[in-house]
Amino acid sequence: MLHLNRDVVVVGAGATGLTAATELKAAGLSVVVLEARDRVGGRLHTDEIDGQMYELGGQWVSPDQTALIDTLETLGLPTYERYREGESVYVGPGGVAARFTGDIFPASDATQAELERLIALLDELVAQTDPAAPWEHPRAAEFDRITFRAWLEAESDDSEAVENIALFIADAMLTKPAHSFSLLQALLMAASAGSFSHLVDADFILDKRVVGGLQQVPLRLAEGLGDDVRLGHPVRTVEWADGGVTVSTDALTVAARHVIVAVPPNLYDRIDYVPPLPRLRQQLQQHQSLGLVIKVHATYETPFWREDGLSGTAFSPYQLVHEAYDNSNHGETRGTLVGFVSDQKADALLQLSAVDRRRAILDSLAAYYGPKALEPVVYYESDWAAEEWTQGAYAASFDLGGLTRYGALQLEPVGPIRFGSSDLAAEGYQHVDGAIRVGRRLAREILDEIAATSTTNATSSTDTTPVTEGASA
User: Fold this and answer.
1) Strand partners, 5
2) Where are the annotated segments for Disordered (predicted)?
3) Are residues 420 and 260 in contact, defined by beta-carbon separation less than 8 angstroms?
4) 11 and 271 Cβ atoms separated by less than 8 Å
5) Residue numbers belonging to the annotated binding site
6) Sequence-separated (6 or more) residues with CB below 8 Å from residue 441
7) What residues are designated binding site for substrate?
8) What architecture (CATH level 2) is domain 2-44+215-277+414-457?
């Protein structure tokens, strides 16, 4: 058993953990990052499937993600714009594909007007919501007790408008049914992106990609940390007291002053805490969960949809694949589509055999792009729920009432233990941008605490009353 001593132990080599470790090391502290997987990146993973490069996890960069953009510039990672020339495709409740341009899909005048009204209403509520403290909204308790779907249905009797507004939060972001999370959770999701309108605008939120894949961010950060990153070391135990921690894997133990648990909340209880975490922390973790999504990659000899005048952007709440985009890699002549199947549709899909699942997904893509979509030369499904060290999609969200009950508590340390990931971000919630912001925040908190402790100790030593020389006992 190897024994190490460090100022800080970081559990998890995703963007949050590696950012925190980089900041702490730059400030002069000793660190070690312990990662259960045999790779760095967490929910960022770029891989080759049958000779084709795919980004199996997160991949997009939007203009408001300034922490990520700053990191890309620091690491010297170039970006390129997602292909978006041409018309988008929407499949309505009747199953007919319709082409359009702009953000609002082709529907009746009444439905289009209702969509615009609901978007404006949500933008107004989002503007009142602080993504760092949504539980402080004047109507937070009320908004956290009603599901997003129930609120939408109370606001509108236009079912097509309701289904499409729900899609942008439920299917596309939280990857849970809209009846399973609160209006307040939906407002947080939109506030973290700046507005609900940003979520509707695919050209904004899915603006650019990194040449060679977004996993290069954690890969470059890990390179800078060198041997301070240890792979294949799932943390089994965190023994903690006010004075510090001892973190143990199967092969090593680390004694440290602080530990950052930088993994999704659903994995917190994979670690044995000695003593156990406070009862409210344990309760908190039982009210957060990840969603479910299958990310589908289909590559063709050419991007045939472009020849047909399509941008590749397609969506429908009535289709198995609720959204899809041109995901062709920089500099390639081949064309790649990426699509997503989430929540209850994913439940049903995972009951099928691999052959039947592929057929159902390609049939759905063909509903958007025509029969040429049925014959990819490379095909792959990213199923993050099957990943041992992820077990779900995108981000953790609370059940009804959980955000107001536990939201503030999730940000508080437990003695020398701090928790953080993109799941706990304000701006950039569930994105790499948010992961970087949280990593910076956690590093800053530890540095501030160390500075404050040093100041207190220095003050205490200078205030000590000296013993008078020659005094007798």
Assistant:
1) 255
2) 454-473
3) yes
4) yes
5) 16, 35-36, 235, 340
6) 420
7) 340
8) 3-Layer(bba) Sandwich (3.50)
**What type of residue is 413?**
P
List the structure tokens of 354.
């691999």
Report the alpha-carbon distance of residue 349 to residue 357 in Å, rounded.
6
Could you read off the pLDDT tens digit of each residue along the chain, which spans 473 residues? Answer: 899 999 999 999 999 999 999 999 999 999 999 999 999 999 999 999 999 999 999 999 999 999 999 999 999 999 999 999 999 999 999 999 999 998 788 899 999 999 999 999 999 999 999 999 999 999 999 999 999 999 999 999 999 999 999 999 999 999 999 999 999 999 999 999 999 999 999 889 899 999 999 999 999 999 999 999 999 999 999 999 998 999 999 999 999 999 999 999 999 999 999 999 999 999 999 999 999 999 999 999 999 999 999 999 999 999 999 999 999 999 999 999 999 999 999 999 999 999 999 999 999 999 999 999 999 999 999 999 999 999 998 889 999 999 999 999 999 999 999 999 999 999 999 999 999 999 999 999 999 999 988 776 765 555 544 333 233 22
Of 323, 267, 268, the residue nearest 88 (C-alpha): 323
Q: In whole angstroms, how far apart are CA 263 and each of 124, 396, 429, 438?
A: 33, 11, 14, 12
Contacts of 176 (CB under 8 A, 6+ apart): 170, 291, 292, 342, 343, 397
Element (H, E) at 31: strand 31-34
Tokens of 88: 């988008």
Residue tagged 């029969």 (tokens): 371
